[in-house]
Design a protein that fits this description.
It is built from two helices and five strands. It is α+β, with helices and mostly antiparallel strands.
Amino acid sequence: MLNRQQKFGRKSERLAAEFLHRMGYRIMETNYRSRVGEIDIIARDEGTIVFVEVKARSSARFGSPKEAVTPAKQRKISMTALDYLKRSGQADASARFDVVAIDTAAGKIDIEVVKNAFALAYG
Protein backbone atom coordinates (compact mmCIF):
# COMPACT_ATOMS: atom_id res chain seq x y z
CA MET A 1 0.00 0.00 0.00
CA LEU A 2 1.36 3.40 -0.95
CA ASN A 3 1.61 6.22 1.56
CA ARG A 4 0.40 9.77 0.78
CA GLN A 5 3.80 10.93 -0.46
CA GLN A 6 4.19 7.92 -2.76
CA LYS A 7 0.69 8.47 -4.19
CA PHE A 8 1.56 12.14 -4.83
CA GLY A 9 4.76 11.04 -6.59
CA ARG A 10 2.98 8.51 -8.79
CA LYS A 11 0.26 11.01 -9.69
CA SER A 12 2.93 13.59 -10.56
CA GLU A 13 4.75 11.11 -12.81
CA ARG A 14 1.47 10.34 -14.63
CA LEU A 15 0.80 14.07 -15.10
CA ALA A 16 4.32 14.55 -16.42
CA ALA A 17 4.03 11.64 -18.89
CA GLU A 18 0.69 12.97 -20.18
CA PHE A 19 2.12 16.48 -20.53
CA LEU A 20 5.20 15.22 -22.39
CA HIS A 21 3.01 13.11 -24.68
CA ARG A 22 0.97 16.21 -25.58
CA MET A 23 4.28 17.99 -26.37
CA GLY A 24 5.15 15.24 -28.88
CA TYR A 25 7.40 13.03 -26.76
CA ARG A 26 6.92 9.29 -27.25
CA ILE A 27 6.98 7.60 -23.84
CA MET A 28 9.09 4.44 -24.00
CA GLU A 29 9.30 3.45 -20.33
CA THR A 30 8.29 4.69 -16.92
CA ASN A 31 9.99 3.94 -13.62
CA TYR A 32 12.99 2.22 -15.22
CA ARG A 33 14.97 0.51 -12.48
CA SER A 34 18.40 -1.04 -12.51
CA ARG A 35 20.92 -1.93 -9.84
CA VAL A 36 22.31 1.60 -10.31
CA GLY A 37 19.12 3.60 -9.75
CA GLU A 38 15.80 4.69 -11.23
CA ILE A 39 14.69 6.99 -14.02
CA ASP A 40 11.14 8.29 -13.86
CA ILE A 41 10.46 8.49 -17.61
CA ILE A 42 12.40 7.47 -20.70
CA ALA A 43 11.03 8.99 -23.89
CA ARG A 44 11.91 9.92 -27.45
CA ASP A 45 11.76 13.48 -28.66
CA GLU A 46 12.33 13.35 -32.39
CA GLY A 47 15.59 11.37 -32.72
CA THR A 48 16.80 11.88 -29.15
CA ILE A 49 16.38 9.59 -26.16
CA VAL A 50 15.30 11.72 -23.21
CA PHE A 51 15.81 10.71 -19.60
CA VAL A 52 13.28 12.61 -17.54
CA GLU A 53 13.37 13.32 -13.81
CA VAL A 54 10.02 14.38 -12.38
CA LYS A 55 10.04 16.63 -9.32
CA ALA A 56 6.85 17.86 -7.69
CA ARG A 57 6.12 20.09 -4.75
CA SER A 58 2.84 20.80 -3.00
CA SER A 59 4.36 23.65 -0.99
CA ALA A 60 7.36 25.96 -1.18
CA ARG A 61 8.65 24.76 2.19
CA PHE A 62 11.42 22.64 0.64
CA GLY A 63 12.22 24.93 -2.28
CA SER A 64 11.29 24.70 -5.92
CA PRO A 65 11.03 21.34 -7.68
CA LYS A 66 13.93 22.22 -10.00
CA GLU A 67 16.25 22.80 -7.03
CA ALA A 68 15.67 19.21 -5.89
CA VAL A 69 17.73 17.77 -8.76
CA THR A 70 21.05 18.02 -6.93
CA PRO A 71 24.46 17.17 -8.40
CA ALA A 72 24.33 13.83 -6.53
CA LYS A 73 20.93 13.07 -8.07
CA GLN A 74 22.28 14.07 -11.50
CA ARG A 75 25.16 11.58 -11.12
CA LYS A 76 22.78 8.78 -10.14
CA ILE A 77 20.45 9.52 -13.08
CA SER A 78 23.45 9.70 -15.43
CA MET A 79 24.79 6.33 -14.32
CA THR A 80 21.35 4.76 -14.67
CA ALA A 81 20.96 6.29 -18.14
CA LEU A 82 24.32 4.87 -19.23
CA ASP A 83 23.23 1.47 -17.91
CA TYR A 84 19.96 1.73 -19.87
CA LEU A 85 21.72 2.71 -23.10
CA LYS A 86 24.19 -0.15 -22.76
CA ARG A 87 21.54 -2.77 -21.92
CA SER A 88 19.24 -1.64 -24.74
CA GLY A 89 22.04 -1.61 -27.35
CA GLN A 90 21.76 2.14 -27.89
CA ALA A 91 25.12 3.27 -26.50
CA ASP A 92 25.72 5.52 -29.53
CA ALA A 93 22.27 7.16 -29.44
CA SER A 94 21.77 10.88 -28.98
CA ALA A 95 20.46 11.51 -25.47
CA ARG A 96 19.66 14.33 -23.08
CA PHE A 97 18.35 14.92 -19.57
CA ASP A 98 15.14 16.86 -18.99
CA VAL A 99 13.42 17.78 -15.73
CA VAL A 100 9.67 18.13 -15.37
CA ALA A 101 8.92 20.44 -12.45
CA ILE A 102 5.39 20.29 -11.08
CA ASP A 103 4.23 22.88 -8.57
CA THR A 104 0.82 22.53 -6.92
CA ALA A 105 1.50 25.00 -4.09
CA ALA A 106 -0.83 27.76 -5.30
CA GLY A 107 -3.81 25.43 -5.55
CA LYS A 108 -3.32 24.97 -9.29
CA ILE A 109 -1.06 22.66 -11.25
CA ASP A 110 1.92 24.38 -12.88
CA ILE A 111 4.08 22.14 -15.08
CA GLU A 112 7.41 23.23 -16.56
CA VAL A 113 9.69 21.15 -18.78
CA VAL A 114 13.36 22.06 -18.57
CA LYS A 115 15.07 20.62 -21.65
CA ASN A 116 18.77 19.81 -21.32
CA ALA A 117 18.47 20.48 -17.60
CA PHE A 118 21.92 19.03 -16.94
CA ALA A 119 24.79 17.32 -18.73
CA LEU A 120 26.01 13.78 -18.24
CA ALA A 121 27.50 13.72 -14.75
CA TYR A 122 29.68 10.91 -13.45
CA GLY A 123 32.60 10.29 -11.17
